[in-house]
């Protein structure tokens, strides 16, 4: 009776803290996200005056980051390591929050090709980790990191179910941290509701495509899932190669980011003046609105993103992965004779899933962004994409569950 | 390279077998299910001529079952044990299929209060287990059982996503058998598609309720989730008590089922002539169509179901749990001033979830039966119901994950 009593008190405490984490993380997410959108708009308008400074700004930021960032410079790797008892990491320094926010703003202001979820996930994990430590809940360290990831992701994208599955399935490939789902759900819904209340814009597009069920459709979707899975794997592999290549040839991180920044600046100007800078939301919008998508958009976006992240700019990979998937989906739609918005939506979800070695998270991203009735299609394509990519992930500290 | 090659071949073999299992299980599911519905209709029309024979038929069936059923008489317990390496059970006898089918038909023809998913899950697990053994895939025994459960459940209810989560989360409380999800999904979608193609009727009801989001709604839903969780716990606890009470006082299973059968016959005649016999689909329909639901319907349905199953009649508990949840939901709706179809739907899903110690499965049952846009509400209520019931389950062989 006493054990059961303690259990209930503990569960209630975790639920209350989950709400608190969801709300506080979403407030920072909203401020970060709104300013990021303003910055992105500003860059689009003044692109040619900003892009030349990318390398310079990167160098200054890196200098300060290396000098004062302490373990925060490990980024997502530190978040993953804090969940692992075999490492000695038990706490994420609070400075990770301002560093990741400012670093990401700078990346986007000066035209790097990157995401934004890195910040959200890291600030969520940091706040949650600190709250757990304040309450001396050492045994729940992993649970708190998961709650924080869910809150950060949900507060930014306003897709609480996807955020819950992402947080619980991303740490170890082949294993779901099921026990934490109830708390992650509470944190994610709190964060998502709060961000929406605070007016953070959510990307969503209601699919209207009628896709009649047939055996042929299933065969096509499996083929499409394989292709999206391969693109996700290629992205993850190229990101690894980019990191090792630049680290090997330019061991000094400041020199590295200067060389990389110059390459990105030149390429970004030559390639349609900034079409591939920033999050890639322009490519996403063009994909769904039927505007021009070039057959090679997704290839260039992959190239610039793996260089941007590979040389040390902050941000993340998720929104570029959405853009890569959606624009590649448009290309595939004409080959497979399916509605372009339908295939773009499948790519949006499944390329992200393959590159992060998850399949429930992208399936629910798909349904939360494009409509719940398409869940079976998202599940099929994301599962195939997940099964195809047995090896490559964008998270170098992600572990694999022995089967 | 070779290991990765073997891995892909193995994955493909499992996927192909999953499709095969899905299709073959759904064919038997459909035959079983269609005849069961005919039998149920026949009983409703001729109730008074059939109900007196319940004890007699139960006794004869039990005599044959005990004599020739071998380990199949363990029912769901055998299915659970076959997944556990610590037991010596490695194979489910094929005779479980005809025994569970005929036994369940007899229960329903003569007016017992029971479900039907026991048959579906057991025949799915049996077929899948045999296929795995034929291919000597001993290391995948648990995966095959999970695939079979998913196929059986999906083939019967045509809710493939719920079936996948049910199969992967029911074996061990607090743990999801995540690795098997892709295969379970394939089996479940194959089974569900095939059953639908073969014309097995699916219960679904499109909710039209507008429930404006507010803090008050959240508070109400948490309270409702707690109450549904308690009802599920009470059902599971009473089922355990019923089993131990009858086993203690009537150690002979034939005497036991005769005594139980007579009690059920008398009670069923006195209580509105058969209102509480069978699956309880009449209560479900009445709940959603706004017909009369008595405040005590759910209590009597609990009582008759735990006696029917407790004394040894075959069938299952799931559809009665749906009925108990829906009819209790109607009662709660007037107390909480919410649309009755909305609360009935929440009860339909979450009471089943609490009694089986699952929360993803019932959340998706809810969305697959009542509409995807209600997923957040189902997740909230089912998660609360799951957290409330820390102890009681209808599956005596279900294990608990050490936390």
From TrEMBL, chains A, B:
A Pfam entry, by short name: Voltage_CLC
Subcellular location: Membrane
One GO CC annotation: membrane
InterPro entries recorded: Cl-channel_core, ClC, ClC-type_chloride_channel
Name of this protein: H+/Cl-antiporter ClcA
Lipid bilayer topology: Multi-pass membrane protein
Entry GO MF terms: chloride transmembrane transporter activity
Keywords assigned by UniProt, alphabetized: Membrane, Transmembrane, Transmembrane helix
Membrane-traversing stretches: 12-39, 46-65, 144-168, 180-200, 212-236, 257-278, 298-316, 328-349, 369-389
Superkingdom of source: Bacteria
């Amino acid at each position: 009776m006493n054990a059961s009593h303690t259990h209930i008190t503990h569960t209630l405490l975790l639920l209350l803290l989950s709400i608190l984490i969801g709300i506080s993380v979403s407030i920072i997410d909203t401020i970060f996200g709104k300013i990021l959108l303003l910055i992105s708009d500003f860059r689009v308008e003044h692109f040619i005056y900003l892009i030349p400074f990318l390398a310079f700004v990167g160098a200054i930021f890196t200098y300060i980051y290396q000098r004062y960032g302490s373990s925060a410079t490990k980024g997502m790797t530190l978040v993953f390591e804090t969940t692992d008892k075999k490492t000695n990491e038990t706490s994420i320094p609070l400075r990770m929050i301002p560093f990741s926010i400012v670093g990401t703003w700078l990346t986007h202001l000066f035209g790097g090709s990157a995401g934004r979820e890195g910040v959200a996930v890291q600030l969520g994990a940091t706040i949650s980790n600190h709250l757990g430590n304040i309450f001396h809940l050492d045994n729940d360290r992993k649970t708190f990191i998961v709650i924080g990831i869910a809150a950060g992701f949900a507060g930014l994208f306003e897709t609480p179910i996807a955020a819950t599955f992402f947080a619980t399935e991303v740490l170890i490939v082949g294993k779901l941290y099921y026990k934490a789902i109830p708390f992650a759900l509470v944190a994610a819904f709190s964060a998502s509701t709060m961000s929406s209340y605070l007016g953070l814009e959510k990307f969503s597009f209601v699919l209207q495509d009628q896709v009649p069920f047939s055996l042929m459709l299933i065969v096509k979707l499996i083929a499409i899932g394989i292709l999206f899975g391969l693109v996700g794997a290629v992205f993850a592999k190229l990101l690894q190669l980019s990191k090792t290549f630049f680290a090997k040839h330019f061991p000094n991180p400041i020199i590295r980011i200067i060389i990389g920044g110059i390459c990105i600046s030149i390429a970004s100007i030559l390639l349609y003046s900034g079409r591939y800078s920033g999050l890639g939301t322009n490519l996403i919008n063009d994909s769904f609105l039927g505007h021009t998508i070039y057959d090679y958009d997704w290839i260039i976006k992959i190239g610039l993103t793996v260089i941007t992240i590979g040389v040390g700019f902050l941000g993340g990979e998720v929104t570029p992965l959405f853009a890569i998937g959606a624009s590649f989906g448009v290309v595939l739609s004409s080959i497979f004779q399916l509605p372009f918005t339908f295939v773009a939506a499948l790519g949006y979800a499944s390329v992200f899933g393959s590159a992060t070695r998850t399949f429930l998270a992208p399936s629910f991203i798909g349904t939360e962004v494009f409509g719940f009735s398409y869940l079976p299609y998202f599940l099929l394509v994301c599962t195939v994409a997940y099964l195809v990519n047995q090896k490559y992930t964008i998270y170098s500290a992600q572990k694999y569950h022995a089967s």
